[in-house]
Amino acid sequence: MTVFTYSETRQRLAAVLDFAKRKGEALIQRKDGSLFRLVPVAPAEPPLDIEGIDGGVFSHEILAAVRESRSARKFK
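Structure (tokenized):
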């Protein structure tokens, strides 16, 4: 378990963050003995990042259906 001092963390913040990312956590200790744990947070997945499905429909068929529905609306 590696413990960084508060002063060392201030001077080398990027290195301490890299350490935490690599090892899963970094401990930081203040002069008064208080101990803190720095833990990396996994990035959240975008809510619209979903896997596609194979519907057996080709893009030219979808475009044809869209064009057909748009042309049908013009005559109403």
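The radius of gyration is 27 Å. Strands lie at 3-5, 26-29, 35-38.
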